[in-house]
């Protein structure tokens, strides 16, 4: 094992909470952050360090309130601390700081989740609750007296029963369905003492900008700003762009070398963040994504283009992840007509949202679709693939899309 990696792992063992290891709660996250700078995995950044200090202070305050009789189970004698809303441009290190915070805090009832996934779960709960009989609702763990048929208070109780510290990655609102329930839902969630930490590319006042009936959404923004300290994370560098631009983003031909370069690209872009499966949902269809970390998805051509997916699925993918790694794209021959059509739709969705793409393929873009139906039209896709490799595209801001 490389000395720098061993040193980092030793540091994380020292500061990550375990039953027999109680870290210094005012320095644990900051210590790991500084250790990663020391071993060369991160660059010194005063703005990031200032946020790390604030997150450590929040972790210490919440852990203090976890003492018996101080917080929870309706016996709280102290108000919970204010959460943190961390916003800034892409590539500033917001998700990396969130990951360190979630892994080092000793708060037991905590949850880190992408905001998109959280809202899918919430909509599913509301739909299921409305289908229950009155008797079934009374037996449900989320039952709230006097809530009647309204599913919002039970949904908030279910959220609080699962966690009192919610960590949201990529907090953003583009859907009118989300906007219409957030104000009421989070009113109940905050009333139950849940503390929230969120990262976002937008300040709270810019959420759901120009959305339909936005005036109904503004009370949620007001409550958000009362319950959370809003911190901007400025930076002179775009760290995500640095990692993307450090090596090519299109690998050909296919083979062990291309596979190895894709592995290296995924590790470099995600910066060692935890790897786990994910899913997207569109028009009632759920599509599993084999691997994701730090807002970056990885799937094979077969995973996405050999299945009956369409534009709605690919737009959901583009909204959910800032970067997609697509492995082992074959030559698009006539016998792969359907797969080729889906591939074109996928590239269109990624391009239109300015989602970043790293891929391995059997040939360069202009030779990927050599003959057959659609070969002529594929020239536009090939042009887009070339543009998506450019510095200008990689440096561009993502475009949010949603129901308006």
Question: Topology, please?
Answer:
Layout: H1 3-15, H2 28-38, H3 46-65, E1 83-87, H4 94-104, E2 110-114, H5 115-130, H6 134-139, H7 152-162, E3 165-169, H8 176-191, E4 195-200, H9 218-227, E5 228-232, H10 239-245, E6 250-251, H11 256-270, E7 276-282, E8 285-293, E9 296-300, H12 301-305, H13 311-320, E10 323-329, H14 337-352, E11 356-361, H15 378-387, H16 391-395
Parallel strand pairs: 1-4, 1-5, 2-3, 3-4, 6-11, 9-10, 10-11
Antiparallel strand pairs: 7-8, 8-9
Helix pairs in contact: 1-2, 2-3, 2-4, 3-4, 7-8, 8-9, 13-14, 14-15
Report on the structure:
The chain has 404 residues and is of the alpha/beta class. The chain has helices spanning 3-15, 28-38, 46-65, 94-104, 115-130, 134-139, 152-162, 176-191, 218-227, 239-245, 256-270, 301-305, 311-320, 337-352, 378-387, 391-395; strands at 83-87, 110-114, 165-169, 195-200, 228-232, 250-251, 276-282, 285-293, 296-300, 323-329, 356-361. It is globular and about 70 Å long. It folds into 2 domains: 3-232, 3-Layer(aba) Sandwich (Rossmann fold), CATH 3.40.50; 239-395, Rossmann fold (3-Layer(aba) Sandwich). Strand 8 (285-293) and strand 9 (296-300) form a beta hairpin. The strands form 2 sheets. Strands 6-11-10-9-8-7 form a 6-stranded mixed β-sheet, sandwiched between helices. The longest helix has 20 residues, at 46-65. The protein is built from 16 helices and 11 strands. Helix 3 (46-65) packs parallel to helix 4 (94-104).
């Amino acid at each position: 094992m490389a000395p720098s990696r061993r040193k980092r792992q030793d540091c994380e063992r020292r500061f990550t909470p375990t039953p027999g290891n109680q870290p210094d709660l005012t320095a644990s996250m900051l210590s790991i952050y500084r250790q990663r700078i020391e071993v060369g995995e991160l660059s010194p950044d005063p703005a990031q360090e200032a946020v790390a200090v604030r997150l450590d202070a929040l972790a210490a305050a919440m852990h203090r309130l976890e003492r018996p009789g101080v917080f929870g189970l309706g016996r709280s004698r102290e108000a919970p601390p204010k959460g943190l809303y961390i916003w800034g441009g892409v590539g500033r290190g917001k998700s990396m700081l969130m990951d360190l915070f979630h892994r080092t805090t000793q708060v037991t009832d905590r949850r880190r989740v992408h905001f998109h996934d959280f809202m899918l779960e919430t909509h599913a709960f509301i739909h299921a609750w409305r289908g229950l009989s009155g008797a079934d609702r009374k037996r449900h763990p989320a039952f709230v007296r006097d809530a009647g048929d309204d599913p919002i208070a039970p949904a908030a109780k279910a959220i609080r029963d699962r966690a009192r510290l919610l960590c949201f990655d990529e907090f953003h609102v583009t859907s009118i369905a989300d906007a219409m329930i957030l104000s009421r839902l989070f009113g109940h969630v905050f009333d139950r003492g849940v503390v929230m930490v969120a990262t976002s590319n937008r300040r709270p006042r810019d959420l759901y900008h120009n959305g339909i009936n936005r005036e109904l959404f503004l009370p949620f923004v007001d409550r958000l700003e009362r319950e959370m300290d809003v911190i901007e994370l400025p930076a002179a560098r775009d760290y995500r762009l640095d990692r993307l631009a450090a090596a090519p983003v299109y690998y050909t031909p296919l083979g062990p070398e291309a596979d190895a370069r894709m592995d290296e690209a995924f590790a470099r872009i995600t910066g060692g963040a935890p790897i786990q499966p994910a899913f997207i949902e569109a028009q009632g269809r759920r599509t599993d994504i084999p691997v994701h970390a730090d807002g970056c998805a990885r799937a094979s051509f077969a995973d996405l283009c050999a299945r009956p997916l369409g534009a709605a699925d690919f737009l959901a993918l583009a909204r959910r992840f800032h970067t997609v790694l697509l492995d082992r794209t074959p030559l698009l021959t006539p016998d792969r007509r359907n797969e080729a059509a889906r591939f074109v739709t996928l590239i269109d969705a990624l391009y239109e949202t300015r989602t970043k793409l790293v891929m391995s393929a059997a040939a360069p873009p202009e030779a990927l679709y050599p003959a057959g139906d659609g070969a002529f039209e594929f020239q536009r896709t090939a042009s887009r693939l070339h543009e998506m490799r450019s510095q200008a595209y990689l440096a561009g801001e993502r475009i949010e899309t949603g129901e308006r």
